[in-house]
Amino acid sequence: MVVKRFWINGCKNQGDGMRDLRMDEIFDTAAGGCETADGFPAEVIDMLQIQEQAVSRLKEKIQKGEEISTALWEAILAFEQFPFRTSSGLAFTYTVKLNRSGQKGNELAVSRKEKTITRSSVEKALAKVLEAGRGVLPVEMSSPKQLGTFGASYLYPVFIQFGLVVHVAPMKSRCAGKSFDQPC
After folding, report:
1. Domain coordinates in residue numbering, the chain
2. Residue 78 CB neighbours (<10 A)
3. Considering the entire predicted model, what is its pTM?
4. For the chain, N or C: smaller number of CB within 10 Å?
């Protein structure tokens, strides 16, 4: 799983800007003058651990062929307000809307949209991923359209973050039929 590096001022080992980090890099890095590994404050480390555990539970249930609806939604909840980018590069976050009783409900409110993405749309998109992968994760996909559901452009990067999907660039039509060692 890859997470975005947070910019923490005052940490002497902090790099310039942001870069992608794998979870194991965060936990294996020495403190270097900051509160925790690689300059992450304890609250961020706690959040990252919750995210990692939620995604691990989801993948485990997928591999065992168990019911995944609850595990999927727990992973969705764990990444609420996480910074994502669509495949076209647009930044977004999402929140899980509250239901009438004030608890987390079954709809994602995306920061770039007025409409919400329902839990059933998220489950439908994951079903497409699992169908395409035929039991093998991560699944190679070239476009959010392959998810075939409302909100696919926002769910696609979420599934990439979860490690369920790997984005592969589609081959250009002028290259069709040529091997990789032949120029297009």
Report:
1. 2-40, 68-167
2. 20
3. 0.74
4. C
